[in-house]
Amino acid sequence: MNLSKLKVFAHVANHGSLTKAAITLDTTQSTISRQINALEREYGARLFHRTGRGVILTPFGERILPRVRTLLSNADQLMQDVQSAGDVPVGDVQLGILPSVVHPLVSSLFRDLRKYYPGIRLHVHEGSGGQIEEWLSSGRIDVGILFRYGKAHAMSSPLLARSDAYLVGATNDPVTQSPTVQFARLQGLPLVLASPPNRLRALLDQISRRKHFTLSVLLETDSLAIQKNVVAEAQAYTILALNAVYREVQSGRLQASRIVNPTIDRVIILRTTTSHPLTQASREVARLITKLAGPSTGQRDSGGRTQD
To answer: Can you tell me whether residue 282 is helix, strand or coil?
Structure first.
């Protein structure tokens, strides 16, 4: 069994494109194509359907992909365990993170890894909460940072911080000038929110139904930058955690008011994949992330993170 060909197969499946896989693996598209063709001949079945925009997995390809990922992960773990025989963790670690949690966590994590574990190479993947959960389930990432709301988080997952949701408006907007705003005040406001499925969006819809009104969502986007730009420039509102707009609030571009009655309690948790055993390097990255949460772990973080 040729692990290098299986690695090519997994990369093509992840990217949905021979060209993108070739760039990632620093090779040519023709080389990628030859290796995929060789695998298909070996297995006697097609792995991908070619389309005008790339490739998609065949039913056979979908069936074997999870097992291929597990095999590759186990091979990587074996290599890293051999390299870490001196109790110094080395190797690649895949981290999935929401865009609004990236700063300053990734910078601090990178600094500590360079200082204490220079043999660990970190790969950071930004995605929505749903994507991160899928990546954890499939084993594409080793460690993921997610949001949970209310009592919906698993107590077995390390709790990094707590935060509330804020209504965010443009500078001098009268609705968000006070420190707090009643949830009922959201009725009729032009909102820019993340697209469903989204845990925060689902909770907001649930609360508004309980209060007998429907949120007026005029724009749906999963881009944090677009949400903030539209709010600042187009007289709209969004709902985020304070940390997501901290710089804009400090600079006077945006202002934020904490939503009350009810407050929207959110926790930031760390999860690790269960699809393969964690390497020593992955365990160390998870430990460092928990440590970076510091004394705020399990406490309310007034500068909480944002969207799921």
So the answer is: helix
Instruction: Please give the Cα distance from 200 to 264 (Å, whole number).
Output: 9
DSSP 145-156: EEEEETT-S-TT
pLDDT tens digits along 249-292: 999 999 999 999 999 888 888 999 988 888 889 999 999 999 88
Angstrom distances, CA of residue 136 to CA of 66, 79, 268, 292, 295: 12, 21, 16, 21, 27
Beta bridge partners of 307: none
- Could you give phi then psi for residue 219, rounded to 5 degrees? -145, 130
Contact (CB, 8 A) for 28 and 22: yes
> Between β-strands 91-97 and 143-149, what pairing exists: parallel, antiparallel or unpaired?
parallel
Q: Which DSSP string corresponds to 221-270?
A: -S-HHHHHHHHHHTT-BEEE-GGGGHHHHHHTSEEEEEEESS--EEEEEE
Structure tokens that stand for 177 in this block: 């000038």
The DSSP output letter for 194 is P
Q: For the chain, which domains are there?
A: 3-67 (1.10.10.10), 84-161+268-296 (3.40.190.10), 166-263 (3.40.190.10)
- In this predicted model, what pLDDT tens digit does every residue of 25-55 receive, in sequence order? 888 999 999 999 999 999 999 999 988 888 9
Positive or negative CA dihedral for 278, 280, 281, 285? Answer: positive
Residues sharing a CB contact under 8 Å with residue 39, sequence separation 6 or more, in sequence order? 5, 6, 8, 9, 47
Q: Identify the helix (H) or strand (E) that includes residue 54.
A: strand 54-57
Phi and psi at 212, nearest 5°, equal 65, 40
CA pair distance 32, 12, nearest whole angstrom: 8
Alpha-carbon distance of 112 to 95, in angstroms, equals: 15
How far apart CA 239 and CA 191 sit, in angstroms, is 8
Please state, in angstroms and rounded to a whole number, the distance separating the CA atoms of residues 161 and 158. Answer: 9
Question: pTM, whole model, 2 decimals?
Answer: 0.65
